[in-house]
Please model this.
Amino acid sequence: MTTFYYGGQAVMEGVMMRGRRSAAMAVRRPDDSIYLYEEALSPRLYQNRLFRLPFLRGMLLLWEMLVLGTRLMTLSTNLATGAVDPDAPSAKGEEPGTRQSNTAVDHNSSDFMPEIAETPPQIGGLALVFTLLISLGFAVAVFFLAPLLIAGFFSNQIGGSWFSLTIEGVLRLGLLIGYLYLIGRVPDIQRIFGYHGAEHKAINAMESGESLDIPHVRAASRVHIRCGTGFLLLVVVVSIVVFAFVGSPSLLIKILSRVLLVPVVAGIAYELMRLGAANYRYRIVRWLLAPGLALQGLTTREPDDSMIECAIAALERVMCRDSLIIKQDAASVDVNLPPLAISR
Model:
C-alpha cells in the first residue's frame, strides 16, 4: 500500500492541512478566535488511481499548490482581515454571533478543537482563474524564462550548451534565493513564515508519535524533509538535466520547452523528494537533502503559541476525518463531524 503523507501550507494568519479525504484550514480572526474551515478533496483527483502513479502524483501536487492553495490563501486573507464575516446572518436565518468563541479553551490540551464552519464563504470563478494565470505566468517568466534569456544573451562568451545550462540553473537558483530572502523581510510574510514553521512542527510531532498539544509541538523541529521549499530547490536542479535533453534548438523552441516541461520537472522533483523522505535514515541521503533543509531557514520562522494552536486545530480536523472514514472507529473520533462539501 502506498504510504500517505500528511501535508499542508501556511496561509494568511493560519494553517491549512491536507488529509486523505479533506483539507482543513484554521485561521486566526481579528477577535483572536479561530475559524476552522474544512472541505472535501475532489475524488476525481485525490482518489483517482491514475494520479497515484509515480510522476503523475507530482503534477497533482503542483495543481494543489496552484488551485487549492491560492483559493484558501484568498479565503484566509478575507477572514483574517475581517473582510468576510462568516457569523453574519445566513440564508438559513442564523443570527450573527451565534458561533462560539474559541478563546476560552485550554490551549495546551490535545482535545482543543474549534467549531467547524458550517457555511463557509465561497470564492472562485473568474477571479480565481485570473489570479492563477497571473501567478503562474509570473513564476514561469521569472524563474524559467528570465534565466534562459540572460544565459542566451551571454552565449557567445560562455560557449558550450552544458555550461550554458549550468549558468541558467545557477541564475534560476539565485533568483529563487533572492526572491525568498526579499519577501521574507516583509512583516506580513514573516508572520506567514511563522505559520509555516508551526505547520512543520505539528506534522513532525504527529509523525514522531507525540501528543498534538502546544508543549510537544513547540519542541518539534520547524524543518521538514518534505517541505515545498526543498521541492523548489529540487525543481531547479532537475530542470538543468531535463532541459539538457532539449539540446540547442532555436530560441522559440527553448522558450516553449521551458514552459511545457514545467509539469515534467515538477513530477520528477516530487518523486525525488518522496524517495529522499523514505530513505532519510541513510547518511548520503541526509547529505543530499541538507541544502533543501538549510533553505527552509528563509521560509520558516519560530512560531508563537497562537500559530501552533492553528496548526494543531487544522491537523486534528483532517486526522479525525480520516479516522472516521478509514478506520470506522467511531469511539476514537468526533462522530459529529459535519458533512463535507465537495471541492470543485
